[in-house]
Specification:
The protein is α+β, with helices and mostly antiparallel strands. Helix content is 35%, strand content 28%. It has 9 helices and 16 strands. The strands form 4 sheets. Strands 1, 2, 3, 13, 14, 15 and 16 form a 7-stranded antiparallel sheet that branches. A 4-stranded antiparallel sheet has the order 4-9-5-8. A 3-stranded antiparallel sheet has the order 10-12-11, with no helix packed on it. Helix 7 packs antiparallel against helix 8.
Length: 367
């Protein structure tokens, strides 16, 4: 593609662009008809479409957290477990995969609802002792284990440490950790709700009932897999955004004055200089969307990690590698529940040899 193309090449490019636009046009029209038939709302993204549909069908409230509260709760939102247990395996084994790990948690989890309360150390400790639903900042002693239960994040990294760990977790994950021998050393603060409800269960099951009548590899089957799966990410959408400002008055520029307190994430609203001359600045602002129910997202991912980690532990030393919704093991016994349905483990393949030097980096020989 260039400015001085030959006439034939220019015609070929034009025909390609027309075909591309026509394919997109007909695809979007087909999706719109499919959505109308099944009562789904369509927005700019699949996550936005999923939230808009769930909000209308289930009459969900808009999120209303303050910036400080949202940031506190966001500390309890982690991804899935990804671990290498045996870097080199010469034995044969099996690879298992969960059908819809996050949608299964979305369908089964009890989520905090109603008004919330922010608690200091004493009140949060009493609430945690009574198993009040919520998000808690704790110091926990984790015993030596091949599969430690509590996630701990820094930046974009995620670890599952042992020893004395300070972190923020939702109640179900703390309860699960205690059941595995962890002890709570102290509670720093909490954000609690009076009760929980299974908010999304019927809605998710209706989607998967429709999907069960379609091929998983069909266009609609793939789209319906993504539709509820993207909702969790939408509810954890970051409200920290930025806009560009050109040639500002120097007196308007915000510089962080509390470097020690803002070492991890600045809460002063510091501007970021983009160019070398101070003419272009990135200005932060906080605008939570109506879908920013980050406490629900933290509960859903926690329930998924609990279910996944339990099956990894059940395979003991046979476990080779795991990711958010998968398990490689030398044990031929399937994880539970076994099957092809929502939240069930199905066999993906068998292997004769396996090698994985790092996370997300592995190779194997078909068994």
């Amino acid at each position: 593609i260039r400015k001085r193309m030959s006439y034939l090449d220019e015609r070929k490019l034009e025909e390609y662009c027309v075909q591309d636009c026509e394919a997109l046009y007909y695809g979007i029209n087909a999706l719109r008809e499919f959505a109308d038939e099944n009562d789904y709302d369509l927005c700019g993204t699949i996550g936005g479409s999923s939230w808009a549909t769930a909000r209308r069908v289930l009459d969900l409230p808009n999120a209303d957290f303050s910036p400080a509260t949202w940031r506190r709760i966001r500390g309890a939102y982690y991804g899935g477990r990804c671990s290498v247990f045996r870097p080199v395996v010469k034995d044969s084994g099996t690879h298992w995969d969960i059908g819809g790990a996050y949608p299964a948690a979305l369908a089964n989890a009890g989520l905090p609802v109603g008004d919330y309360r922010e608690c200091g150390r004493k009140a949060a400790g009493a609430a945690l002792a009574r198993d009040v639903p919520g998000i808690y900042s704790c110091v926990v002693r984790v015993p030596e284990s091949g599969v430690p239960p509590l996630p701990w994040g820094w930046g974009t990294g995620l670890a599952f440490p042992v020893g004395v760990v300070a972190g923020i977790w939702p109640l179900p994950e703390i309860q699960h950790a205690v059941s595995l021998g962890c002890t709570i050393e102290s509670v720093e603060w909490g954000i609690t709700w009076a009760r929980t409800e299974n908010v999304f269960g019927d809605w998710v099951r209706r989607i998967y009932a429709l999907r069960s009548g379609l091929s998983k590899d069909s266009a609609w089957g793939k789209w319906l897999r993504l539709f509820p799966n993207s909702l969790c990410g939408k509810m954890a959408e970051r409200p920290d955004k930025r806009f560009l400002r050109m040639n500002p008055d120097p007196s308007d520029i915000v510089i962080c004055r509390r470097r020690k307190r803002c070492a991890i994430e600045c809460i002063c609203g510091e501007w970021e200089q983009i160019d070398k001359w101070g003419q272009m600045w990135s200005v932060p602002f906080f605008r939570p969307s109506e879908s920013s129910h980050v406490h629900w997202a933290s509960y859903i991912t926690a329930e998924s990690r609990i279910a996944h980690g339990s099956q990894v532990r059940s395979h003991g030393d046979a476990a080779v590698y795991c990711d958010t919704d998968s398990l490689w093991t030398t044990n031929a016994t399937p994880p539970e529940p076994h099957g092809d349905g929502l939240g069930q483990w199905s066999l993906k393949c068998t292997f004769a040899e396996w090698e994985g030097p790092a996370l997300k980096c592995y190779a194997y020989t078909d068994g």
